[in-house]
């Protein structure tokens, strides 16, 4: 699938819930009073520009989104805070393409490693990241929500 990356801005946050809807992350974290937009909003600095990116199709459809912190984990590794692919685009390589874009940004910024966390209930995502070269360095119990652990994963970018 042909895609291009488009930076999102504060005004684009409302579109994120539609992309995340139907995912296991949305069901477990964002289907109640705490919404996808609330989580993404926390990654925006006061100037209204954040690190929200969309995977766009040639017809200008938003196929997926990712939220990154370029100085995330330990201020040394890029951190992938959220990666979601819209239901109708799943299984078409959108997630893998976005992950490669994230890793390339890390290399361009001179980062040695990329980091992310995966919820313990999200087995499919955990296997996806392992298949793409990430390895687990530990489990953080009750990281965001009581009763849900987060796998901390890294990938060498050098």
Automatic annotation (TrEMBL):
- Origin species, per record, is Marvinbryantia formatexigens DSM 14469
Gene Ontology molecular functions: acyltransferase activity, transferring groups other than amino-acyl groups
Can you name this protein? Acetyltransferase, GNAT family
> Where is each N-acetyltransferase domain found?
11-158
Q: What is the lineage of its organism?
A: Bacteria, Bacillati, Bacillota, Clostridia, Lachnospirales
Keyword entries, A-Z: Acyltransferase, Transferase
State the superkingdom: Bacteria
The record's annotation in InterPro entries points to: Acyl_CoA_acyltransferase (IPR016181), GNAT_dom (IPR000182), N-term/lysine_N-AcTrnsfr (IPR051556)
Q: Read off the Pfam families from this record.
A: Acetyltransf_1 (PF00583)
Matching SUPFAM superfamilies, A to Z? Answer: Acyl-CoA N-acyltransferases (Nat)
């Amino acid at each position: 699938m042909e895609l291009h990356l488009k930076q999102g801005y504060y005004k684009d946050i409302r579109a994120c819930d539609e992309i995340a809807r139907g995912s296991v992350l949305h069901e477990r974290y964002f289907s109640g009073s705490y919404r996808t937009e609330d989580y993404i909003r926390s990654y925006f600095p006061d100037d209204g520009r954040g690190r929200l990116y969309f995977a766009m199709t040639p017809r200008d459809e938003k196929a997926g989104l990712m939220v990154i912190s370029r100085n995330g984990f330990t201020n040394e590794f890029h951190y992938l805070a959220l990666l979601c692919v819209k239901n109708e685009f799943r299984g078409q390589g959108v997630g893998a393409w976005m992950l490669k874009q994230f890793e390339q940004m890390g290399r361009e910024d001179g980062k040695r490693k990329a980091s992310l966390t995966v919820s313990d209930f999200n087995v499919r995502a955990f296997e996806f990241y392992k298949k793409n070269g990430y390895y687990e360095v530990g489990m953080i119990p009750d990281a965001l929500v009581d009763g849900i652990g987060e796998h901390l994963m890294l990938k060498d970018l050098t």
